[in-house]
Specification:
2 domains; 3-stranded antiparallel β-sheet; disordered C terminus; 492 residues; mainly alpha; 21 helices
Length: 492
């Protein structure tokens, strides 16, 4: 690993996410009418920002350019974001019941933090929120590459690179609370393993690892209710990778993970589920027939993570090349990781795979639902990241997965193309609409970022950053980790 890769790779990731943030209009993330109003009302009643409804105690009055920002284009990919001009500067207060302050479907932490960026300019406020999310992710990536032993760092950042394109990047560069879920879970397990295995947790590196472990877990727990169950799963994986006997000999470290797990359980039990309540959605018989059907169709959700689903409000179609590349790369890493597995890798991979299947299937069966209803690919993205992460650990924990040079370059090239193509498909949808060809040179943009930056400059910057980020992970980090001679430190 080069000396400064822990700096330039996270910077490239941030710039890549910034390109997505700049080319997506306000309200473009799924359910943003709920999430944006919840952000605006997170600090309670404020004049001109969030006011009580005179007729409905469960409703709030929020500026129209927040509540209805996406009304003119969502669900219809042929309509560009140019239609938002009519509502962009309309701060008239309108009534809405889709606000977390009254229905309490999500934890408050994410909304309260984002509310610090609320200002009179809605577009500027939303952009700052998106860039803040991207900055958090970049800083945690930098900490992984700087603090965590090379083999473990390579497994974690490699899993993030593979599973975040394109859905994860689109989510991180948005105002959807799932951004914190995928950022938090994707890094928490690796920080926890490194913390458990570090020689002396009281030295500077040990304290930094403890801090990063807490930050990653808190990000996840304060974003979505289901993320709290993912924290428990990630904790079990971390303890299994590190070794339960070793963890039991270090009660101080174990106490930290136990405290985070207890906090996750309390949050899960005290906040209403973010999807549905306790009653079944439909009259479908939740028997063996539904179970087998859901198992047969479950891969649709996994494929959706790597580009097989439409982004935004299910209105931004990804080119078929993207999911094909994503599925092939996932299969390649799973095959390589399980080619010569240790017993520990088999156990952790089994736990992660079981969670990836059992979590959605259990929910769907309990609610009498089929695949495609309620459960979205982005909900399962953190679990897929965990699976790829633990599978990508080398036979010895001091080393990363030894992926041959040619597959490294091929994977990096394919993922770079996918990342650029996904960005362009998303940007094209908003500035021109799907009625025009993806590479039609005659297209005249109907909407551009409010920053005033020309589209060509954003596109070049995002493409360059995407290549640098993906190539850095697979051509620099993975090879260095596979030949690392560093040893894991034994805890005191």
């Amino acid at each position: 690993m080069t000396r400064w890769s822990w700096v330039w790779i996270p910077v490239a990731f941030f710039v890549m996410c910034a390109g997505w943030a700049l080319t997506s209009p306000v309200g473009s993330a799924p359910d943003d009418d709920y999430h944006l109003t919840s952000i605006w009302c997170a600090q309670g009643v404020r004049a001109g920002v969030c006011e009580e409804s005179p007729t409905d105690p469960m409703a709030r009055l929020v500026p129209r350019n927040v509540v209805q920002a996406s009304d003119c284009y969502r669900f219809d990919g042929s309509v560009s974001a140019g239609c938002t001009v009519s509502v962009r500067d309309d701060a008239t207060l309108v009534e809405t019941t889709r606000v977390n302050e009254t229905v309490h479907l999500y934890p408050k932490g994410y909304y309260l933090t984002m509310s610090a960026f609320v200002g009179p300019d809605v577009e500027h406020s939303v952009l700052m929120m998106r860039l803040f999310n991207a900055a958090i992710a970049a800083l945690l990536l930098a900490a992984l590459l700087r603090l965590v032993p090379p083999g473990l760092a390579a497994a974690a950042v490699g899993a993030i690179a593979v599973t975040f394109i394109p859905l994860g990047v689109a989510t991180v560069a948005s105002t959807n609370p799932s951004a914190w879920t995928i950022i938090g879970i994707g890094t928490y397990w690796a920080f926890a393993v490194a913390f458990l295995r570090h020689r002396n947790w009281r030295d500077r590196r040990g304290l930094l690892l403890a801090a990063c472990t807490v930050v990653a877990a808190v990000l996840a727990m304060s974003s979505r209710v289901d993320a709290n169950s993912y924290v428990l799963i990630a904790t079990v994986l971390a303890l299994t990778v590190s070794g339960w006997k070793r963890a039991l000999r270090t009660p101080g470290r174990l106490a930290l993970l136990a405290a985070l797990s207890i906090a996750a359980v309390i949050t899960y039990l005290t906040v209403a589920p973010s999807a549905v309540g306790g009653e079944a959605f439909a009259e479908t018989h939740a028997g063996a027939g539904l179970l087998l059907t859901n198992l047969a169709y479950l891969p649709v959700l996994f494929q959706g993570i790597v580009g097989g689903t439409q982004l935004g409000w299910n209105d931004t179609l990804m080119p078929p090349l993207i999911p094909v590349v994503g599925v092939i790369v996932l299969g390649a890493l799973l095959y390589r990781g399980l080619q010569q597995p240790t017993r520990r890798i088999l156990v952790t991979s089994g736990i992660a795979a079981l969670a990836l299947v059992a979590v959605p299937i259990t929910f769907l069966q309990m609610q009498h639902l089929g695949v495609g209803e309620v459960v979205q690919p982005r909900y399962l993205l953190p679990l897929l990241t965990l699976l790829i992460g633990v599978v990508s650990l080398g036979p010895r924990l001091a080393f990363g997965l030894n992926l041959p040079r040619v597959p490294q370059v091929l994977i990096a090239t394919a993922l770079s193309v996918s990342a650029i193509l996904a960005f362009w498909a998303n940007a094209h949808r908003y500035f021109a609409g799907s009625g025009f060809g993806l590479f039609d040179p005659k297209v005249s943009p109907e909407w551009l970022s409010s920053t005033g930056l020309p589209l060509w400059l954003i596109a070049i910057g995002t493409a360059t950053a995407s290549i640098a980020y993906v190539m850095g992970v697979f051509v620099v980090v993975l090879p260095a980790a596979s030949r690392s001679t560093s040893e894991w430190r034994t805890p005191r």
